[in-house]
Amino acid sequence: MKNSFARLLLSLVLLAFILLAAGCSSSSLESTVKSPDAGGGNALGSKDLNDIKGMLGLEVGGHYPDNYGLSRVYGTVTNGSKQNLKSVTLAISFGKRGQGIKVGEVEVKNLPAGEKKSFDIATTVNASNQGEYSINLIGATR
């Protein structure tokens, strides 16, 4: 009982920290575009990002608890476009689709056209409280 209370408290503290760091904003994940990285990649604009979004295949394999009892979500992303991508950034939100709170993101680097790569996203959500979630493309560079 004491151990589960400590995990719950840690989860709440982490979630509060994330919300404060994000400015308590629940802006749309769908329209966020990443800046070019230091390696000189070209960030895709909104139109290009939406085009790529329609050609990426996301397959969620499942979720599991990490060593702290927090949920991690894993799967694969497939680049179905004809463009090589230097990186794609995926975000996970828990809650009803479109109304969820962003609780984690991951950058998948070097995704050539037609290739598939694995991802594993760490979240701030207690694994025992796993609910509905969605994963969205929030940025890409080529």
List the helices and strands and how they pair.
Layout: H1 2-21, H2 46-53, E1 56-65, E2 70-79, E3 85-94, E4 101-111, E5 116-126, E6 133-141
Antiparallel strand pairs: 1-2, 2-5, 3-4, 3-6
Can you characterise this structure?
The chain has 142 residues and is an alpha+beta fold. It has a single domain (2-141), classed as Immunoglobulin-like (Sandwich), CATH 2.60.40. It contains two helices and six strands; from the N terminus they run ααββββββ. It has helices at residues 2-21, 46-53; strands at 56-65, 70-79, 85-94, 101-111, 116-126, 133-141. The strands form two sheets. It has a three-stranded antiparallel beta sheet. The longest helix has 20 residues, at 2-21. The N and C termini lie far apart (49 Å). The relative contact order is 0.24.
Question: C-alpha Rg, in Å?
Answer: 16 Å
Number of helices: 2
Task: Report how far apart the termini are.
Answer: 49 Å
- Name the CATH class: Mainly Beta
Query: Multimeric state of these chains?
Result: single chain
Quickly give the structural class: alpha+beta
Q: Describe the sheet with the most strands.
A: 3 strands, antiparallel
- CATH topology descriptor: Immunoglobulin-like
Which stretches are poorly predicted, pLDDT < 50 over at least 5 residues? 12-39
Strand content is 35-45%
What is the total domain count?
Answer: 1
The side-by-side strand order for the widest beta sheet comes to: 1-2-5
Which CATH-level-2 architecture? Sandwich
Mean pLDDT: 74
Helix content: 10-25%
